[in-house]
């Protein structure tokens, strides 16, 4: 559905960027399933479909999607950076380390055969982010206070079942939402400091 919407006319409208993003992810995931069905090979194919990744960035100075969510939210004092959360955008968050663990589980867990593992650990909204920013005494990357006045496969494994698979790796639970978003805040501040250092040099 996302691919069809992404290619429909008129293309490249601003409100369809999630469709375009989803369409770019769908074909690479569909390809191994299609090849498996057509070849009849005795292989096991598990895929991981995570929602928006959050948590620590390997390189905070890079404009990675993992850090982009929080960094963009901090850049704007009028709440516009949080609109993706209030307009059916980033509805669920999963820590990038949990996503990595799911990929390991898909390779090593013999119980999982030809399944699609869904990672959507934490429901999140723009209002929850504002509360988090205020709890941390957070200012946006322009030095202004963050204001709370916002504008209004073949078988899927849900987050509950996926949690049981993660337990086999010794993980007690998903990384908590406060911790994963807190790491994004830390990386965003580091990135802002690097940007300021480059601008001053």
Overview in brief:
The chain has 201 residues and is mainly α. It has helices at residues 2-7, 17-39, 65-75, 83-86, 96-108, 126-135, 159-167, 177-200; strands spanning 47-50, 52-54, 92-95, 116-119, 122-123, 156-157.
Index terms:
2 domains, three-stranded mixed sheet, Rossmann fold, 201 residues, three-stranded parallel sheet
Describe this structure as you would to a colleague:
This protein is mainly alpha-helical. The protein has two domains: 1-43, no CATH class; 44-200, Rossmann fold, CATH 3.40.50. 50% of the residues lie in helices and 9% in strands. It has eight helices and six strands. It has helices at 2-7, 17-39, 65-75, 83-86, 96-108, 126-135, 159-167, 177-200, and strands at residues 47-50, 52-54, 92-95, 116-119, 122-123, 156-157. Strands 1-4-6 form a three-stranded parallel beta sheet. A three-stranded mixed beta sheet has the order 2-3-5. Helix 3 packs across helix 8. The longest helix has 24 residues, at 177-200.
């Amino acid at each position: 559905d996302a691919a069809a919407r992404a290619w429909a006319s008129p293309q490249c409208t601003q409100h369809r960027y999630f469709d375009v993003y989803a369409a770019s992810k769908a074909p690479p995931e569909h390809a191994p399933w299609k090849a498996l069905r057509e070849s009849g090979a005795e292989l096991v194919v598990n895929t991981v479909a995570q929602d928006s990744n959050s948590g620590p960035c390997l390189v905070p100075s890079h404009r990675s999607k993992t850090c982009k969510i929080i960094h963009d939210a901090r850049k704007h004092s009028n709440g516009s950076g949080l609109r993706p959360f209030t307009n059916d955008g980033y509805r669920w968050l999963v820590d990038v380390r949990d996503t990595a663990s799911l990929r390991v589980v898909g390779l090593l867990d013999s119980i999982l055969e030809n399944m699609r593992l869904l990672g959507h650990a934490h429901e999140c909204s723009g209002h929850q982010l504002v509360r988090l920013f205020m709890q941390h005494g957070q200012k946006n990357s322009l030095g202004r206070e963050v204001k709370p006045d916002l504008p209004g496969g073949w078988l899927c494994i849900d987050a509950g079942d996926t949690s049981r698979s993660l337990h086999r790796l010794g993980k007690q639970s998903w990384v908590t939402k406060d911790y994963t978003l807190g790491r994004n805040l830390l990386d965003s501040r580091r990135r802002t400091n690097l940007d300021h250092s480059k601008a001053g040099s």
